[in-house]
Amino acid sequence: MRRRALLASLAALAGGAALPALARVPGLGNVEQPRLLLVIDDVGHSLASGRRTLALPGPLNCAFLPHSNHGRTLAQEARALGKGVMLHAPMANSQQLALGPGALTPDLDKAELQRILRDDLDAIPHAAGVNNHMGSLLTSSRAPMEWVMEVLRERGLWFVDSRTTASTLAWQVAQEQGVPSLMRDVFLDHEQTPEFVHREFRRGLKIARHYGSALLIGHPHDVTLDYLHEALPLLDELGFQRLTVSAFLQQQADFRSLNSADPRLINTHRRHWGMG
User: Fold this and answer.
1) Which of 116, 214, 231, 248 has its C-alpha lying 20 to 30 A from 159's C-alpha?
2) What is the pLDDT, as a whole number, of residue 32?
3) How far apart are CA 126 and CA 160, in angstroms?
4) Could you say which DSSP state residue 179 is in?
5) The whole model's pTM is what?
6) Structural domain contains residue 3
7) Is residue 11 situated within a structural domain?
């Protein structure tokens, strides 16, 4: 897609709607600028696609699969480039799809699940947080989620609920356990076509424009990376602020420290959108 046509298409859908009044709270700084968080999952299997992901311009988070061939190397490179590093923790799914090494499954007792999670975290240097890889079964189970959040709390990490099922309890349990947490708003590439990625990216911009922020998850597919390398440089012109998850959560913490902070603004990611 030519740059001018892409910019016009994004601007037409993302630029018109103003933020709701709740986002205009005195003392919170420039919160009228919509914030966009981008996470790229499944990084670590391929060195080439991993490095192409790291070459995406601006702030983003890379979610690394534990014990993958290149996860440790790419995590070190991501850190050096200022990208956010997180563990993409494999969790049991209802379709019984293969999870790979480091999987968290419902047959594990608390001690074994937490041991595996700690090993997974140790395999990804500089991980500041975690999100779930698959997980439609495990994230719906309260006890395993409580065990996961205990480990994250003890290590001072945050959690992103990828929301692979509408019945997920992960975000709720994280909140109960005092673990900083967000939820995914949009999956960019559930279908791997340029048209689908473009449509979902525009949907993410609309969500961010309306609510003040949006968290988008994609994968290191060629179609996704091709699109993002073209689209991300346009976001400054469209008035969007891009942040890593850690930076966004720090903004939230700063907001909470202000007496005037509106809790509806702080918990923008309490909302539940369609599965993407």
Assistant:
1) 231
2) 65
3) 16
4) -
5) 0.88
6) no
7) no
